[in-house]
Specification:
Length: about 150
């Protein structure tokens, strides 16, 4: 069997050229996979701690359930005043202490699943929300408490 050396070399050159062109095209036009950002561990643990305290601390839970939220609801600082055991700032202080360094927080009490206040967070920063649904009995209205954590500007 006789192999035509010129034809064989040209075939190899063509295959190598195709591989190089294909690599170049994929390098230029290839989509880079989107980076999926997870919550930082410190944020996740802080949000869990805050929401668990709201759920399981009877004083905090009753404070949120007795809040007069009106038609929509609003910020925790304005809706909890006068409804707690005499010191509505205790919850705000607790949330501030549980917020990790370098982050700010925002708290709201709502009747609906939609946000009922304006979260004032930097536009170029990630916002990490966590919600808790509080319900006492059929006669009482349910409350949704949302905690937002975001990096300081």
């Amino acid at each position: 069997m006789v192999i035509n050396k010129k034809g064989f070399i040209r075939t190899i050159e063509a295959v190598i050229a195709i591989v190089i062109l294909l690599g170049l095209v994929l390098t230029i036009f290839g989509d880079k996979p989107q980076e999926i950002k997870k919550r930082p561990e410190v944020v996740e643990s802080s949000l869990n701690y805050i929401t668990n305290e709201i759920l399981y601390n009877k004083e905090f839970r009753n404070c949120f359930l007795s809040a007069s939220v009106g038609n929509n609801g609003g910020l925790c600082s304005s809706k909890l005043s006068g409804t707690c055991w005499g010191d509505p700032t205790k919850i705000k202080e607790f949330i501030n202490l549980a917020t990790p360094p370098g982050y700010e927080n925002h708290c709201e009490v709502c009747k609906t699943t939609r946000s009922c206040s304006k979260v004032i967070a930097p536009e170029d920063k990630s916002v990490y929300p966590k919600s808790v649904f509080l319900y006492l009995s059929k006669e009482d209205e349910a409350r949704i408490v949302r905690i937002y954590l975001f990096e300081k500007a």
